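Changelog note: in this version the structure field was regenerated for every chain. One regenerated record is shown below for reference.
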Amino acid sequence: MRAVPNWGVATAVAAPVLLVGGWTVAGARQPAGYDPIRDTISELAGHDATDAWIMISALVLLGCCYLAIAAVLHAAGLPSRFLLAVGGVATIALVAFPRPTVGGSLSHGIVATVAVLALALWPAGSALRLPRGPDPAHPGTPQPPWAFRRGVALSATLVLLALFGWFAFEVTSGSRTGLAERVTAVGVSLWPLLAVLSARRAHLAWAAGVRPLGPALPATGVVPPDPLLPTDGPDRLA
């Protein structure tokens, strides 16, 4: 049994705060022509941005938050945690491939796409390894944390992919690229927080159910299984 530590919860809370705070402060430093509805977050960390270090720092710290969450969120399982870590690395790598002053950048576009897709797909990694519903052969087995239940996790991935599709449309033929990017970025940064809170709540409920509050349990008492343990065996990710 591995609980999500307090610093893991704080890191998950910090991710959307860093993102929104970064683009808010950096956007306020730009000339009057910058439009957050039309212009992207990447422009705030680009070559010609005013005080680009603000958005660069926010992106690096955001990527580190994703990596830290992937390290402690054992309830998600190895595939999901790997995708979340890939999203964190790609987020940090964005600062190494800034958007040029004029035109686009293939390397920046590839890294940004990898980051968003990894962060959109990681909920499905845990959902696909879980049973579709209660196991008739083991009726006493508790349901996993709600964020990792198949229907919830797959729905989260579908919503995040839809947001990514909207962003891709705006990039190619729309006029609200900045708005679409910001909504998508907030979406992918909020789901790790919800997943951490879900795992934390499940662990606290499990701990309260097995920890004796009064006299010792009789010898025949049965400790309920930990809902955070993977269904296919213990988690071995260091």
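Spot check on this record: The two ends are 14 Å apart (CA to CA). The longest helix spans residues 177-210.
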